[in-house]
Amino acid sequence: MTLLAASVKRASLTLTSRSIVRSFTNVMQQPITSRAMHIQSIPMWEGTGNNYAYLVTDDKSKEAVIIDPANPPEVLPVLNEKTESGAIKLTKIINTHHHHDHAGGNVEILKRFDLPIVGGKDCSKVTTTPEHKSQFTIGDSIKVTALHTPCHTQDSICYFFEDGAERVVFTGDTLFIGGCGRFFEGNAKEMHKALNETLASLPDDTKVYPGHEYTKGNVRFAKKVLNNDAIKKLDEYSQANKETQGKFTIGDEKQHNVFMRVNDKNIHDLVGETEPVQVMKALREMKDRS
Ligand SMILES: [Zn+2]
């Protein structure tokens, strides 16, 4: 029996399960890497826009941020209940981009909560626009890195959150599960960089939290472009589950998201292009027409 196994066995005889975890950590002589980040999805405009706001809380300090609280009638009841009960200390609004269905709730939220707004330069009432790759913390445990991903809008920012045990990214309308946003203010070169350089360079186990539940429609399009096991799996999951946010990772997107497979030979054959930016352009045009 190893020293570690012996210690755990000894601990299990006398201690509660919570103490065992602590004892285990002491034995390992490693920092505690327990999950500290709690994410609550708040669906908005269900059945039409199918947006998500996200309340992210550092479990230890209770410090919390609200991401894209665009529809206050659906978000404020949650924020009121959580702040009044002492479950959270709300410290920031974070916006992924300036569109009304993401940043359009800021003015109403500010009437109830006096908060700084971190977001792109064109977001309503924004107080801070973080530099690309700049970082800030939420409570003691969550480190946030801002990633500029201009294309859908020029002020689009994705936010990579890490708590030591877990990694997630809030992608607004840049990356969806199985898809990407329209190129309203940008071009294929920018979306290629956003998806296949900036977001693709995050750890593969990073969970994706997009701004909308668009997965079913994205899979319908993906199946017209490519047939692989990952797309079949995503199809099955989205048929069986209404919500897909946080269930797939950057690694999964590299398999099932056709906009992140611009080097796939089968897609090249379909669109008649091989250069990644031209493939991205062709795919987006096909999706817009579909
Ligand atoms: Zn948008």
Automatic annotation (TrEMBL):
Gene3D superfamilies: Ribonuclease Z/Hydroxyacylglutathione hydrolase-like. Residues 50-212 form the Metallo-beta-lactamase domain. This is hydroxyacylglutathione hydrolase. It comes from Periconia macrospinosa. InterPro entries: Clx_II_MBL, HAGH_C, Hydroxyacylglutathione_Hdrlase, Metallo-B-lactamas, RibonucZ/Hydroxyglut_hydro. Pathway: Secondary metabolite metabolism; methylglyoxal degradation; (R)-lactate from methylglyoxal: step 2/2. GO terms for biological process: methylglyoxal catabolic process to D-lactate via S-lactoyl-glutathione. CDD domains: hydroxyacylglutathione_hydrolase_MBL-fold. The keyword Metal-binding applies. The keyword Calcium does not apply. Its EC number is 3.1.2.6. Keywords: Hydrolase, Metal-binding, Zinc. It catalyses: an S-(2-hydroxyacyl)glutathione + H2O = a 2-hydroxy carboxylate + glutathione + H(+). One of its GO terms (molecular function) is hydroxyacylglutathione hydrolase activity. Pfam families: HAGH_C, Lactamase_B. Belongs to the metallo-beta-lactamase superfamily. Glyoxalase II family. Its cofactor is Zn(2+). It is an enzyme of class 3 (hydrolase).
